[in-house]
Amino acid sequence: MKTRTQNILSVVRIIALIGYIGAAVYGLRIIIPFVGGFITDKLAFDTGTGLDSLRETHLLTYLSLMSFIIALVIMKVRMWESLRAILEEIDLSSPFSLKIASMLENMSYLILAVGIVYIAGDSYAGYISKKISIVDKGLLNGDFQYLFSAGVVYVMAQIFRRGVELQDENELTV
């Protein structure tokens, strides 16, 4: 019989899978029309970003803003993939392991990178919006939530590292 924690972990694994699939579909929804628009050289492909009208008049600006968006999409898919890997690796009989701590630490670095790209992209969009009226100043609508989340996940990684140390000490005592 499964414990309550095992049931919750199973539900969270399913949610992480749904999040991963959703992020991947969203990424494909942006990347395929972006690439397709250059292959066919038509504006018929809508990326859903509101930037498609820029392609004809300001190609370099369009490419740079879309680069930020695509980088963020790829990083978010990678974040969900990382979360799924962590949830699959967790063993409730011995939850603290160096591998989990390392995976959490790597995920915190990835979340930090997402936050930095959001801030850089927002700054660039704000700069461009002064010159080109089509570009929305808050295009990426990023804030400091990713930086805060990166800090929280990093602290969790350090707690897991300490848990590994305590678990090893406990095993040596017995």
From TrEMBL:
The organism's place on the tree of life at top rank: Bacteria
Record keywords: Membrane, Transmembrane, Transmembrane helix
Transmembrane segments: 12-39, 59-77, 109-129, 144-160
Pfam family, one: DUF2975
Protein name, as recorded: DUF2975 domain-containing protein
Organism (species): Emticicia soli
